[in-house]
Every structure is written in structure tokens, then in C-alpha cells.
Amino acid sequence: MTLTGHVGQFCALALTMLCVQARLPNLGAQGVNLLRLQKETGPIESLPQPASTEFSVLAATFPQFNFTQPLDHFTDTGFTFNQRYWVSDRHFKPGGPVIVLDGGETSGTDRLPYLDTGIVDILASATNGLGVVLEHRYYGASIPVLNFTTDSLRWLNNEQAAADSANFLRTVKFEGIDEDLTAPGTPWIYYGGSYAGARSAHMRVLYPDVVFGAIASSGVTFASLKDWQYYDIIRQFAPADCIKQVETTIVEVDELLSSDKTQATIQNVFGLPNVTHVEDFGSVLSSPLGAWQNNNWDPAVGSTSFANFCAALGTPNNTRVEITKGVSVNAAVLNYAAYVNRTLVARCRAPNTQDDCFGTFDPTAFQATDLSQDWRLWNFQVCTQWGFFTTAPPDPERPRIISKFITLEYSAQFCQFAYPPGEHFAIPPLPNITAVNSLGGFDIAADRLAIIDGQADPWRPNTPHSDDAKPRPDTTLRPFKLIEGAVHHWDENGISDHTAEPPTIKAVHEQEVEFVKAWLKDFKRPGKA
Ligand SMILES: *[C@@H]1O[C@H](CO)[C@@H](O)[C@H](O)[C@H]1NC(C)=O
Ligand SMILES: *[C@@H]1O[C@H](CO)[C@@H](O)[C@H](O)[C@H]1NC(C)=O
Ligand SMILES: *[C@@H]1O[C@H](CO)[C@@H](O)[C@H](O)[C@H]1NC(C)=O
Ligand SMILES: *[C@@H]1O[C@H](CO)[C@@H](O)[C@H](O)[C@H]1NC(C)=O
Ligand SMILES: *[C@@H]1O[C@H](CO)[C@@H](O)[C@H](O)[C@H]1NC(C)=O
Ligand SMILES: *[C@@H]1O[C@H](CO)[C@@H](O)[C@H](O)[C@H]1NC(C)=O
């Protein structure tokens, strides 16, 4: 999805770079622009910001190790790479399980809080388990290649990444631990949130004898090309007054953009006269909305930027203001324009033009392939296997909070710009989402596979809790839980005093402990009756 909400990982070596935590980053082309602008001009409010000092402390707390993986699990290339992982043995007792958290589409260092006070620590503590964070190939420091060209990215796919995890579970030897903790002799509980949540579900389905149990939190198991529902969830669950202001603005702005006579006038109001394409102008307007995904129950993790945006929009009324002779707009439009001008437009400075900052129609802007271009990673996955392109609702009558000019064609064109055909690999015209969905999509299910989602999560339409998915019972063997009012994988983080967590979070953590303990009771070492 445009950056907006689908902000990308951007996190490099710990503290040397500004680090943006990945939250299923469908950032797309405008997202790449905004990350670059942020790098040059400092934190942009609507992009998620990490608590970066915490990471360095945790990196010192948990030892880091390498695991040797083949570059290609299916064809021998002769090459291997180091896959990073971190271990917490603070709760481990012989006989305990391993709780592994899949790092997904970001540096594993971003996931260390979950090893310390989050879900891994919670489950390990309850089961005498060993906690592990496993970094995903190509992310963080687990990089098997020298650059991110299309050819070099051809081993970044779901099949290779799943095979990495299976290989790790089957063969890892933990330093300082005498027991053989490999699967299937030891039960492994696999946890992931968001993209990693889908991976968690996939692992249980693809490698049932290696992954004893799995939790898919906000797992996006249903891949779609047009993901118009992302913003529709925000429209349904964000504060009503705020959404009314956004709807009013978008409808009026779209109307003015539709006529040559008024297009320049309305772009001027936002301080964006020189953005050539209305699609780019529309996508800049949607970017503050992505902040919805940064809401978290723990103020230390979440951000108030969505609330700040709403505050800037004011309360709905019918005041109209003339912007040029004979053309007037609702006061909401001017509030929205002032917010965009202040938080985004003002950062675009000479010698950059507004198209340099906010344009996405120049293929050459997306062709750098050195290892610092880590936006190329998740976007490559999007462009090949996952989709999730932001679009306006297909039904023009449906209320909307993003511009009608955001089409599939617009959101997907960047794939062809960023990943020109190589000698060994070319991306498809549109991502082939068949492989993902053939693993179950909305219906993905298995014994000891838990599905946990958030009611107000913009990614819920891509999970088994989608309004389009069939209802299912919630059982101990197949837990199926929707956290009321929650956004994106809100069960993944925790605070050191779990009793002080909000009731819904405390409850889901307790339920996760309960069903994992019940699963473990059923564990039998293979080969032993
Ligand atoms: C892990 O591998 C990387 C290179 O991929 C290397 O820089 C690092 O020192 C290794 N770490 C350990 C603990 O061996
Ligand atoms: C990328 O790396 C490969 C080796 O893995 C090399 O052959 C190729 O020339 C590099 N391409 C660029 C553009 O750096
Ligand atoms: C945008 O903000 C700048 C200050 O950064 C101000 O000078 C300019 O007038 C504003 N433009 C609009 C159209 O509000
Ligand atoms: C827009 O382009 C014109 C003509 O090149 C230039 O004079 C003006 O400064 C630009 N305005 C902004 C806000 O970039
Ligand atoms: C309507 O909203 C605008 C902008 O939020 C505000 O300036 C104006 O005072 C409001 N008018 C009324 C009548 O409340
Ligand atoms: C998409 O992938 C599926 C399986 O992964 C394959 O069977 C199918 O041929 C692919 N479709 C296209 C158009 O390449």
C-alpha cells in the first residue's frame, strides 16, 4: 500500500541510521519517497519511529549467533550465508520447548523487545522454554548477496524462506545447551506477526512434523492484488469526526482534480503546485492515514501521530471558504492542506523539485541497487508473490478516505520501474499470488495453529478474520481470537509487569499461555510411544 500505513523497514545497523520499524510495509513508490525525505530531513510524524535506544540495550542482553543456510535450498549453487538469531535462555529448563519468533520483513534487532518482555518471553516463562528470534533471509544482517538487483533478489521468496526456517528447526545446535533441541524431538512453537504471521501459518501447514504448534498474529494469509480494504478499515474504526473531515476533503479534492480548470488551484492550496501527476498528489494526501497502524496499547511502542493528524483536521461543520474566484471548499480541506504542507511539503527543498520529492513516474528514481536500498526487499516480495496494492474502493458509491486516482495500475507500475528484468530472473507483470493463497488463504487451518487478529487492524481483511472469511469456532486445538479494538498484532508486545497490561491484552496473553501449555501436554517424542 502506499507508504501510508504500509511503511517499510528502513532499519540498518542499529543506531547509525534513522530506523523505521517495519509494520508490513507496503510502502510502494510514494513510501520510498517519504523514507528518503525522512532520511534527509528528520522524523516524519506519520511514519513509525522506533524506540531505538532500547534496541542497543537489548542487543547487548541477548547473544547473537549465526546459522549457515544454503543460498538455494532446491538447487545447489555452492553458496551459503549466515542467518542471524538471538537466544534467551533465562527461562529454559531441560525438557522445555523452543519458542521461535519469525523476524519477518525487517532487521531481527527490531524484534528483540518481544524476546525481553513480549510474547516470546511470556510463552517461554510459562513453559520453561528457550526463546529465539530468527532473522529472515535478506533482512537485517542475514544478507546472502552483494547487491539488490533483480537477479540478486531471486532467492528472496516464500519457498526459500520457509525452507530456511525448517532447516533451522531441524538442525540448530544452541551454544551452551547440551540437550539436542532440534525438531521434531523437541516441540517448537512458531510465532509471527503480520507477514511473519502468514509465514507462521504457512510453516505449520508446510512442515507439520517440524513445527509442533504455531501462532499467526495478524497473519496476512490472504494475498490480494487490490487491497482497498486497508483504508476502509481505518474509515470504519478511526474516530468518526476525523474520518468525516477526511471524507469531505477527499471527495471535494477529487472533484477539483477532475477538471483542468481547478486542478492547479487545489494543488496550490496544499502547497503542491508542481506535482505533475494527480495520482502522486493523491498518494501524498493519503500518507498521514497510514499512522493508524502505529497505534498501540503501549504508549512506549505506539505513536500519537494519527491523533495529532485528527486534531489538525478540526471538527466537522459546513463553513465554506473561497479558494479562488467562484470556487469554495469546506473548511476541512484547508485544515488538511495545512497539515500536509507543514508535515510533508515543507521538507521538500531546492534543488529538489516537487516531482523529485513526491513523484513516482520517473523509473530512474528507483534503480539504485546497493545494499543500503533496503526498501527493495519487501517491495520485491510484494511485486512477485504478495500484491496488497493500495487502491480506492472499486465501488465508486462507497465512502472513501483515499483518492479515486489511486488505482491498481498506478500502485503497481513502480514494480516494473524498480525491478527491470535481469539475466536470470524477471518479475511477473503482476504478482502471482496463487502460491500464497493455495496454502489456504482465509481458510488456512491446522491443529495447533492459532489465529489471532485485531478488530481495527487495517490488515484484518487479509486474515482469516476478514469479513469475507467464513466464521469458525475458537477451540484449544484451533484457537481463533479477535482482539476487540486492537490494531496490528497487539499481542506481540508486552510490558515487564504483565498484570498492568490493559484487560484485552492481558486476556489474550493468558489465553496464549493456556493453549500452548495444553498443546505441549500432547507432545510425544517421535519414535517413542
Ligand atoms: C555472523 O556473520 C556475519 C557475516 O555474515 C559476521 O559479520 C559476524 O561476525 C558473524 N557473527 C558471529 C557471532 O559469528
Ligand atoms: C550484483 O552482484 C553480482 C554478484 O552477486 C554481480 O555479478 C553484479 O555485477 C552486481 N550488479 C551490480 C549492479 O552491482
Ligand atoms: C506552506 O508552508 C510554508 C511554510 O513552510 C508557507 O510559507 C506556505 O505559505 C504554505 N503554503 C500553503 C499553500 O499553505
Ligand atoms: C514550481 O515551479 C515553478 C517553475 O519552475 C517555480 O518557480 C516554483 O518555485 C515552484 N514551486 C514550488 C513550490 O516548488
Ligand atoms: C468550522 O471549522 C473551521 C475549521 O476547522 C473553523 O475555523 C471554524 O471556526 C468553524 N466554524 C464554525 C461555525 O464552527
Ligand atoms: C502462478 O503460480 C502458480 C503456482 O505457484 C503456478 O501454477 C501458475 O502457473 C503461476 N501463474 C502464472 C501466470 O505464472
Automatic annotation (TrEMBL):
Secretion signal, residue range per the UniProt entry: 1-22
- Record's keyword annotation contains Cell division: no
Task: Give the span(s) annotated as Disordered.
Answer: 455-475
Q: Which Gene3D superfamilies match?
A: alpha/beta hydrolase
Ranges of compositional bias, category Basic and acidic residues = 465-475
**What Pfam families is this protein classified in?**
Peptidase_S28
Please verify whether the record's keywords include Hydrolase: yes
Protein keywords: Glycoprotein, Hydrolase, Protease, Signal
Q: Which PANTHER family match?
A: PROTEASE S28 PRO-X CARBOXYPEPTIDASE-RELATED, SERINE PROTEASE 16
Q: Which family does it belong to?
A: Belongs to the peptidase S28 family.
Q: What is this protein called?
A: Peptidase S28
* Source organism (scientific name): Somion occarium
Q: What broad taxonomic lineage does this protein's source fall under?
A: Eukaryota, Fungi, Dikarya, Basidiomycota, Agaricomycotina
